[in-house]
Amino acid sequence: MERCNKYRLITEIGGVDRMLYMVNPWSHGVLSARERRGGSPVCEIRRTKRKPRIRGSRENWNSPCRKRRRFFGKDHPNTAIFLNNLGVVYKTQGMYAKAEPLYKRALAIETKQLGSNHPATARSLNNLSELYREQGRYAEAQPLCERSLAIRENQLGADHPSTAISLNNLALLYYSQEEYGKAEPLYERALAIYEKQLGSGHPSTGNSLNNLAQLYRAQEKYPEAESLYKRSLAIHEKESGADHPSTAGSLNNLAGLYKVQGKYTEAEPLYKRSLAICEKR
Fold first, then answer.
1. Contact status, residue 225 vs residue 217, Cβ threshold 8 Å
2. If 0-12 CB within 10 Å is exposed, 13-18 middle and 19+ buried, where does residue 15 land?
3. What is the pLDDT, as a whole number, of residue 280?
4. Is the pLDDT reported for residue 41 higher than 80?
5. Using CA of residue 114, residue 84, residue 143, residue 192, what is the dihedral sign?
6. DSSP readout, 14-69?
7. Structure pTM?
């Protein structure tokens, strides 16, 4: 899988280049550290010391997963971490039928051992919800996402960056069903949290700006969308670098906005820059 593709969550629907930011499974650390800096929306995992590759990664993950079950026991919370991570590997490759039972086992372990209101349980609820959303199983995804949000608001606080993740994902669920009126206040809350807790120039703030811009674009609020896309692009260029996949995503999104308005002269150089970044990787 090309590295740039890891940042694509909604791809070219009906000829429209839509991109939302997706977590790179190997780019974030342990949950506690990830929550302190906000992380990215969507999947949440823990990282081991080595970075397994996506290609061939099932073999890389299956062995330590078996060893950890033997060492800790099949119902230990640490076993749930590896089950969760292996589920992410399958989900990243579109192998949903293999990911689902792993996510469910991780959720069952954390619910039993840590409690139904523990932040780790919220993480597993979030991941299973996202798995269902990607398959269009919205009725199954929504109660899980709502439970994840409720836990985080209760346990971590209404202004915690992890709460913003759940707000973002619930908004994305509504966005996927074209319920834009329900999605907008959730995206706005998530953005306000990131700006307050992480700063106006943080990459997570950039991702949140992008997501709200996507919503405005879907509603043909093009001036509002353009302003947010430009802010998102500026953040990613400054914080991640001119050749980073996040920058490529922002360039692609702004170009897509110009294209849908028939502003092809403005769109072309942005598409070319985005393509050049992806080709380097």
1. yes
2. exposed
3. 86
4. no
5. positive
6. TTB--------TTS---HHHHHHH---SS------SS---STTHHHHHHHHHHHHH
7. 0.76
User: CA of 89: how far to CAs of 21, 49, 64, 107, 115, in Å?
Assistant: 17, 16, 14, 17, 26
Beta carbons of 166 and 133 less than 8 angstroms apart? no
| Residue 7 contacts residue 19 (beta carbons within 8 Å) | yes
First-to-last alpha carbon distance for the chain, in angstroms, is: 11
Q: Say whether 174 sits in a helix, a strand or coil.
A: helix
CB within 8 Å of 212: residues ≥ 6 apart: 184, 187, 188, 191, 228
* 139 C-beta neighbours (distance < 10 Å), count: 8
Angle at 236 between CA 231 and CA 240, to 5 degrees: 160
Concatenating the DSSP letter of every residue in 114-147 gives H-TTSHHHHHHHHHHHHHHHHTT-HHHHHHHHHH
Greater confidence (91 vs 40) lies with 91
pLDDT band at 74 (very low <50, low <70, confident <90, very high): confident
Reported residue count of the chain is: 281
Q: How deeply is 56 buried, as exposed, middle or buried, from its count of CB atoms within 10 A (0-12, 13-18, 19+)?
A: exposed
Read off the pLDDT of residues 179-217 as tens digits, 9 standing for 90 and up: 999 999 999 999 999 999 999 999 999 999 999 999 999
CA distances to 6, 138, 242 from 232, in Å: 18, 28, 13
Q: 13 phi and psi, to 5 degrees?
A: -90, 120
Cβ atoms 173, 198 nearer than 8 A: no
3-class SS of residue 216: helix
